[in-house]
Every structure is written in C-alpha cells, then in structure tokens.
Amino acid sequence: MRWRPCSVSARSWVSANMNEALIYPPQIELVSDHACLLTFAESINDAAADVIALVTKALRNCEGIIDLVPSYTTLLVVFDTDHYDRFKITNKIKTLANKIELNSTNTSARREVVIPVYYAPEVGPDLEEVASQCNLTIDEVIKLHSETAYRAYAIGFAPGFAFLGNTPEAIRMPRKTTPRLKVPLGSVAIAEQQTAVYPSVTPGGWQILGRTPVQLVDWQSDSLALIEVGDTVRFEPITREEFLAQGGQLDGF
Amino acid sequence: MAFKVIKPGMLALLQDMGRHGYQHLGVTTGGPMDELAFRWGNALLDNDSNAAQIEITFGGFTVEAQQSTSIAITGADLGATLNGKGILPWQTYAIQKGDVLVFQQPKFGLRAYLAVKGGFLATSVLGSVATVMREKLGGLTGKGDKLAVHDVLPFHSTTQHTARHVPRLAIPNYEQMEINVVTGYQFKHFSGLERARFFSSTYSVSQNCDRMGYRLEGTAVGQDQPGIISEGIAYGAIQIPNDGQPIVLFRDRQTIGGYPKVGCVTSFSGALLSQKKPGDRIGFRYISVDQAEHERHLQLARIHQWR
C-alpha cells in the first residue's frame, strides 16, 4: 500500500471503497534505463486487476518488450533499449492504453482454473489449528476455503507461486511464527487474506490445509504454469482415494 | 570437443544473457552479473552476443582442454594461468588440446568470464541456458546445477584464432566507488533528510552478497512506509527494508516484492557493483534517466563499433 500516515483523504476513502480507484490511462514512471512501472490503482481492487490483465495481454506481443511483471496494482514493463528510449516506450504504452476497450473486461472472459484438493490433517498439518483458532469445525474450514472463487492477483516468490485472494474473513489467520524449512510440493495454504498452492518445495510460513495432486508448473509442457495473473481459481475437495488415484503423494513432512 | 572441469571452485556457472519473457510466471532472468564483461567476451571472439560463457566467482577453477579452440577472458583478474604461465583478462588466447587453464583468486574484481569461440553448448530451458540455482533451471544439466568436478563443457572445436584485446579505454576500473542510481519507485516517499543520507553516505558490501542481491552496511536510511503492495522488481532495484540497510537486487532476484525502493542502479553500475567483495566500499550517485540511457548507449556503441 502506497500510503503514508496522515495522508488518508476523504477522496481516497471513497475510491478505496468503490471501484473508482482505477487510474487510467495508467501512471507511467521510468524506474531504470530499461524498465518502467505502470500504476493502475493506489489500493487493491478488481477493476484495476482486470485492466492490468488486459494491458499485459496487449503488450505481450509487442516487439521490443522483453518482460512483463503484473502485480496487484502495477505492471512492470522491461524493454529492449535498442528498440525504445524513454520517450518511445512512454508513447507506445500511451497509444496502446488509448486503444484498449475497458468494457471488454468482464468476469466471464476470465479463465477459470479448478484445483482438486485433499483436505486432511495428514497433508494439511495446520487444519486443526486453523479450525480451533477460528472457532470452526474442520469441515467448516474446508467448506469456506473451497466455496470461494479466488483471483490470481500476482505471481512471484517462486516460479508459478500465485497469490490468490481473497479468503473469507472467518478463516483469516496470520502466518506461522516459525516458518517451515520445507513445505511439500502441492501444499495448499492460507495467510491473512491470501491463499496459494506451493509449486515447488520451498521454505514457507503459511498455514497448510491440504494438498493437490496436480502439478502447477511443468517447464516441458506448452502451458508451463497452470495459473496466470488474472485467472479465477477454485478449489474442489477430493477424497484420499481420489488424491492417490490422481498421483498424489502423502509424504513430505 | 570440450573443456573438462578439474576443479569447480567456489561458484562457476554457465550463463547466457538470461531467461527473458517468463517473469510473469515468477521465473527470474539469471544472466551475467557483469553484463559489460560478458558482452566484451563474445565480441572478442566475434560470437553471437547471447553465446554461453562460464561466470567464475572468486576462482579456484581449473579446466583442461580436450580439443583446440580460441578463448577470451574478461571481467575480474582472478590470477589466471595457462599451462602455469600468467595471463591477463580482456583478451583472446589460443588453446591446444591438453592445455590447462587455472583461475586462482581475485586480484581485481570478483567475477571472471570464460568465453569460447562459438559459445559453450547446452540444452536451453525456457529459451536460455542461464543457471539459476534457486529455481533449479538452466546450466549443463538443465536443473540449475553449478559446475562440478568432471563436468564436460562442450564447444565446437576450431583451430582458427585471432589475437584481439579490448581497447584500454574501454576496460572498466573495478576500484571505482561511485555507483550510479536512477531514482524512482517510492523515492518520493523518502524525506529529504533520508535521501541526503542515502546519497552522501559510504556503504560497505556485507557478507550477504550473491547473485540475488547485495546487502550493504552503513548509515541506515529511515522510511516511514509500513510496506507497499508487492510490485515487479526491476534489475538493480535498491530496497530499503525496516533496518534501513540498502539491498541492491541483481540477476537472480525474486520477480515481485513489497519493500520500498529508492531507485535502481544502472545496468553498468550494477556490473561494477557485482565485481565488489565483502568489505569493499561504495557510494551512490544520482543520475537522471537520460544520463543513464546515454551511459548505456555509449558502452554498447563502443562494443558495436569495435566489432
């Protein structure tokens, strides 16, 4: 959040609560000799996320654009300095932004990714703790987590690690005080208003609820990563038998 | 048709210009820490500018040639020897079968580049052979491994050799302390006093310096920003975490992050900084985006015209 104490005005309160927080065309700032940062909002909101997905798509196939890093409210554009200087890249983005029809964004146009999850203490060691901290039963936690449609706001931390939001208020938990040194592949976890699936074995401090048998990244395949920024993601509870039948592994802790 | 690794040293990695176009999936770029030295290595041999080279950090690296070829050494002076005889960086050398090439330890700078005529051959992953150990991508195996003893580094053998060297004026001075910075990101949220502290202090390179980033030690830069919404991190971004000690992010950085940033070091100042060792001292100097653009074009034009 790009806010400072004492600078919260009535206007930003209004825009933070309604979907007027979109800045369009985006604010363009050169952050180095070969990258610029496009800012679409001051606070996280779905209207900005939709537009970021749209602009990212439009810039993807432009010549001389090397990399695009979309996140919650911004898009980092890395460009080839042989192709653009600071004026040309700004003009290119402005021209492109003016051509984009903002109305073309709607939820139905989004890709939906369904991820099967085996929710159980044997693969979700924090499930019981989350339930007791939130005064819920394990089944209620599973229901709340799996009945919510999430949005992939950003990808980072590790290849294919998608930050999905937002979890229902009732199951919001802080990160663990001591992160685990090894979180098994496919672990489905929550932290604050976010949820995610671990695409590789990494250290991690999120609360683990279950595990998916589905592989999230496969660099040998054409699709590479299952989730991309802007996608809608749902979790579908599966049984232990289904988990094993789909190739799920129970070890790792 | 190869070099055989006799001693891998502390860290020797296969690198090309990096893995580009996948940062939206969280895949970092990798690539040479010292872009300028890397570019000169390929220019000296008239290679494609993306041809794979070995980045040797610190030294302790020994290879034996199994066939003849032509090599170029650029970047740090790691006290290299060819069959026991001292050789200098920034030029080409003819290699015969059985020749032993040794990189001992740093005299000037930290990272040396070994380029071979036509480039080292390896199967690329996501369009690049750049080794990123943290992501287990690239390198000889494709799985992000650093070079190990008995590894075989293949190349197309050649007996053609042209003696060439980088013009003296184009060789960077790794003892230079000024690191150029383009301000941006959250710069405007730092107070005048904190900006002044950042630009007027001397920082030393801490023990925590690797391909991901360089953590510096010196005057703490205060910031009253409680954290920002995670955003894309450009090469060279300077993060100011809660303790106020700047971290400069390099080739293997994470793609997004939520620490406030004062700006970015330029590509060639970043190259200079990555030749620094723990304990070396630096200072940051403000330059405008057009000066940074000019600096980059000047360096690239020099290589281009010389080719």
| Assembly state | heterodimer
What is the number of domains of chain A? 2
Main beta sheet of chain B: 7 strands, mixed, barrel
CATH topology of the largest domain in chain A: Cyclophilin
Protein name (chain B): KipI antagonist
Domain Carboxyltransferase (chain B): 24-303
GO molecular function, one term (chain B): ATP binding
InterPro entries (chain B): CT_A_B, Cyclophilin-like_dom_sf, PxpC
Question: Main traits of this protein?
Answer:
heterodimer, A: 253 residues, alpha+beta, Gyrase A, domain 2, Cyclophilin, 2 domains, 7-stranded mixed β-barrel, 15 strands, 23% helix, 28% strand, disordered N terminus, B: 307 residues, 7-stranded mixed barrel, 6-stranded antiparallel beta sheet, 20 strands
How would you characterize the overall build of this protein?
Helix content of chain A is 23%, strand content 28%. Chain A has helices at 10-17, 46-60, 86-99, 127-133, 138-146, 240-245; strands at 27-30, 35-39, 65-70, 74-79, 112-119, 150-155, 162-165, 180-183, 187-191, 194-197, 202-204, 207-211, 217-218, 224-225, 232-237. In chain A, a hairpin with a 2-residue loop joins strand 9 and strand 10 (194-197). Chain B has 307 residues and is an alpha+beta fold. Chain B has two domains: 2-170, no CATH class; 178-306, Beta Barrel (Cyclophilin), CATH 2.40.100.10. In chain B, the strands form four sheets. Chain B has a seven-stranded mixed β-barrel. A six-stranded antiparallel β-sheet of chain B has the order 7-6-9-4-1-11, with no helix packed on it. Chain B has a five-stranded antiparallel β-sheet with strand order 2-3-10-5-8, with helices on one face. In chain B, helix 1 runs parallel beside helix 4. The mean pLDDT of chain B is 96. Chains A and B meet through strand 3, strand 4 and strand 14 of A and strand 15, strand 18, strand 19 and helix 4 of B. Chain A: This is Kinase A inhibitor. Chain A: It comes from Marinomonas aquimarina. Chain A: InterPro entries: CT_C_D, Cyclophilin-like_dom_sf, PxpB. Chain A: Keywords: ATP-binding, Hydrolase, Kinase, Nucleotide-binding, Transferase.
